[in-house]
Design brief:
Oligomer: single chain
CATH topology of the largest domain: Endonuclease III, domain 1
Number of domains: 2
Helix content: 55-70%
Strand content: under 5%
Number of helices: 13
CATH class of the largest domain: Mainly Alpha
Shape: elongated
CATH superfamily of the largest domain: Hypothetical protein, domain 2
Structural class: mainly alpha
């Protein structure tokens, strides 16, 4: 299966069925606020929450604290209240403060632009680090979250158990020119079309190429019909 074909068909499906959809990171990037520190904090906020909640928490935080120095020196209780919409706000506030202090003290207020140093920061795993590289620095990487992992496996493009395994498989199978497109497109597609519980196979342009649909979805939709 050709990744270029998948990307083209996913774009068409989203244009038809969810033309206004955008991920929280995509919105930050499009609005011109693709600062690496803001992307890093937005990705930490996004852990285990919905994009709309990430966006609200992000806007409230950066309306009160303008940069890494202010957050590093900010009041943790106030940060908790500002990011409350993102959930797990006590843990996230502690991590955000911790990360901000490290960036100030060890990196002169600048987010590192390589995977190894990003991964050394608290609460930064491969997905978060790759998001910073793609959305913050415009570098080629493949951030893989649960949506990317699920869609790629449903389509049969990979056969993996964990998101990290999916990332490594995609790095081997996908031409680098597509790397920066994958997260934004496949996350939106996973949120709006190829949903976890009830995928919208009836509007998807990829059903004839989809392993999951051929094995499971076809029977489900035939019963509904």
């Amino acid at each position: 299966m050709d990744i270029g074909f998948l990307i083209k068909e996913i774009r068409k499906t989203l244009q038809e069925e969810a033309p206004e959809s955008e991920t929280a990171l995509g919105e930050i990037n499009r609005s011109g606020r693709g600062d690496p520190f803001e992307v890093l904090i937005a990705t930490i906020l996004s852990h285990r929450t919905r994009d709309e909640n990430t966006g609200r928490a992000f806007q409230q935080l950066f309306s009160n604290y303008k940069n890494v120095k202010e957050i590093a020196e900010g009041d943790e209780n106030k940060i908790q209240e500002l990011i409350r919409p993102a959930g797990f706000y006590r843990v996230k506030a502690r991590r955000i403060k911790e990360v901000s202090k490290i960036i100030m003290n060890q990196y002169n207020g600048k987010v590192p632009d390589d995977l190894e140093r990003l991964l050394s920061l608290p609460s930064v795993g491969r997905k978060t680090a790759n998001c910073v590289l793609v959305y913050g620095f415009g570098k080629e990487a493949i951030p893989v979250d649960t949506h990317v992992h699920r869609v790629m496996n449903r389509l049969g493009f990979v056969n993996t158990k964990k998101p990290e395994e999916t990332e490594f498989e995609l790095m081997k199978k996908v031409d680098r020119k597509y790397w920066m497109d994958i997260n934004e497109l496949f996350v939106k597609f996973g949120q709006k079309i190829c949903k976890p519980i009830v995928p919208r196979c009836n509007v998807c342009r990829l059903i004839s190429h989809c392993k999951w649909y051929q094995e499971f979805g076809k029977r489900i939709y035939e019963k509904k019909g």
